[in-house]
């Protein structure tokens, strides 16, 4: 149980709107309540429709709107969004559009070679003030060294860190989260992050596409 005035936040979750996930919003909410999560950022791939529809619903868990946006230089998390950002844009333009909505810019799994992290340009982005938060613990990386590298990136640039399950199914939800003072909006969230505690375990999730049965 978290202390009074504190919340548990999973900062990186996908629903069926992502196209490669099987987690419905209602399943997400039910499981989040069971796990004691208070806030979930729904960060679907290049999509905000499910998060926007769920925000404000009485689901037992608070839904915040995010998006994992694909760019040629790697993926970027937009947090606290009000509208979708297209995935065909250059990474600097995605950053600009996130900021124009009053949102926060995050770097998910930047050094995971199996996924489209923005590690090659991460230091330059951070040095230019284009990043607000680094995902220092992603529950789906296979090698813990990739999370360590993300944490080191944040440390080099004095940036706060977050954690997310990157869940695409109900089993993965809550594998990683942060415990932090409750917040109201992006600025409040960012101010509270330095006090957060990361909690997580590396956890294999369901495969994106189940293997087909072999022909007899």
TrEMBL record:
Domain Polymerase/histidinol phosphatase N-terminal: 9-73
Domain of life: Bacteria
Annotated SMART domains: POLIIIAc
CDD domains reported for this sequence: PHP_HisPPase
SUPFAM superfamilies, A to Z: PHP domain-like
Name of the featured protein: PHP domain-containing protein
């Amino acid at each position: 149980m978290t202390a009074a005035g504190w919340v548990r936040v999973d900062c990186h979750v996908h629903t069926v709107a992502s196209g490669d996930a099987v987690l419905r919003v209602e399943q997400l909410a039910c499981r989040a309540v069971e796990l004691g999560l208070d806030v979930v950022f729904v960060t679907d791939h290049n999509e905000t429709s499910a998060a926007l529809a769920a925000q404000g619903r009485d689901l037992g868990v608070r839904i915040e709107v995010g998006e994992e946006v694909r760019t040629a230089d790697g993926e970027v998390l937009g947090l606290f969004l009000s509208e979708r950002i297209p995935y065909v844009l250059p990474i600097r333009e995605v950053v600009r559009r996130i900021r124009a909505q009053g949102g926060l810019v995050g770097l998910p799994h930047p050094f995971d070679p199996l996924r489209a992290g923005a590690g090659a340009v991460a230091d330059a982005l951070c040095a230019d003030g284009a990043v607000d938060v680094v995902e220092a613990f992603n529950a789906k990386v296979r090698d813990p060294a990739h999370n360590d590298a993300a944490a080191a990136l944040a440390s080099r640039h004095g940036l706060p860190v977050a954690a997310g399950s990157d869940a695409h199914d109900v089993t993965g939800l809550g594998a990683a989260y942060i415990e932090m003072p409750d917040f109201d909006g992006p600025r409040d969230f960012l101010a509270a992050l330095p006090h957060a505690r990361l909690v997580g375990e590396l956890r294999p999730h369901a495969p994106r596409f189940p293997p087909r049965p072999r022909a007899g």
